[in-house]
Write a structure and sequence with these properties.
Structural class: alpha+beta
Radius of gyration: 26 Å
Number of domains: 3
Strand order of the largest sheet: 1-3-2
Oligomer: single chain
Number of strands: 7
Helix content: 25-40%
Strand content: 15-25%
Largest sheet: 3 strands, antiparallel
Number of helices: 8
Bound molecules: zinc ion
């Protein structure tokens, strides 16, 4: 049983800040307590309107969070969602390096339901390009990782029925070493989208693109998918090579707040 006298007193002392009241098994009971707090139906939180409260997902069920707003005039209301700019390092292969994606996520920590943030603007440099993303530290102490944030945002879009964008375009890099082979693969994929890397390497070899064929074979052998490696993956690999990004570059997906360290620790080869 929750001791609401103790919980309310704690929240009153931290007036203006969100504090966790308790965790409940089911959403119904948590939601009912949150309503009771707001309406003053639970005596400890009277008068009605002295507290704001909500129920949110917690690792162990549903957490109820409340904040005392009694006598506080300039308090901003808690938004349902946050719009954040997040670095997206793509798949482990890191096609295209990093790009900043703006996504919508819950305003609450996904572990305990506590409020996320506040957001701060973070500038960093990658591949000689200045980038801006958002950082935040959750008061509850649960760190958010960018990769997990992106997954959450994707899940929200899936639930909302937003169609997923198509994969990266297969197009030779202008002036690149493998421009012609990549465009050839792109053409081949139009009629045979499931073509494998080895099959396309053979075709390229027959056409005289021996080096591209060799690079693809080496890539397919070292790739985790091995023999199953697709021609599309091979083309993306050739594009990466032409863009001067060593494919062995494994991008650590660091915790938010440590991005600068991750970048600083990445040895050379980022030109
Ligand atoms: Zn948390």
């Amino acid at each position: 049983m929750t001791n609401h006298n103790v919980a309310a007193e704690k929240a009153r002392q931290a007036a203006g800040a969100w504090t966790m009241i308790s965790v409940y098994r089911g959403f119904q009971s948590g939601d009912s307590v949150a309503r009771g707090i707001r309406a003053g139906r639970i005596v400890a939180y009277r008068p009605a309107g002295a507290f704001e409260a909500y129920a949110a997902m917690h690792d162990d069920g549903t957490a109820v969070w409340a904040r005392c707003v009694d006598g506080i005039l300039d308090i901003s209301s808690m938004p349902q969602t946050l719009t954040v700019r997040v670095p997206d390092y793509g798949t482990p292969r890191g096609y295209g390096g990093v790009r900043i994606t703006t996504v919508e996520i819950s305003s609450k920590c996904q572990r305990c339901g506590g409020p996320r943030g506040p957001l701060t603007v973070h500038h960093f440099v990658k591949d000689d390009t200045r980038l801006v993303c958002d950082r935040w530290v959750n008061a509850c102490g649960h760190p958010d990782e960018y990769s997990v944030v992106l997954t959450e945002a994707q899940r929200r879009m899936d639930l909302a029925g937003v169609p997923r964008p198509k994969g990266p375009e297969i197009k030779g890099v202008e002036g690149g070493q493998f421009t012609v082979p990549v465009d050839f693969i792109a053409l081949a994929l139009k009629t045979k989208p499931w073509m494998r890397a080895r099959a396309v390497a053979k075709l390229l070899e027959d056409l005289g693109h021996v080096q591209a064929a060799e690079v693809i074979c080496t890539f397919a052998e070292s790739n985790v998918t091995g023999y199953q490696t697709s021609a599309k993956a091979a083309a993306l690999y050739l594009i990466e090579r032409d863009m001067g990004r060593p494919a062995s570059e494994a991008w650590a997906d660091g915790q938010i707040g440590y991005e600068a360290d991750v970048i600083a620790e990445t040895p050379g080869g980022e030109k």
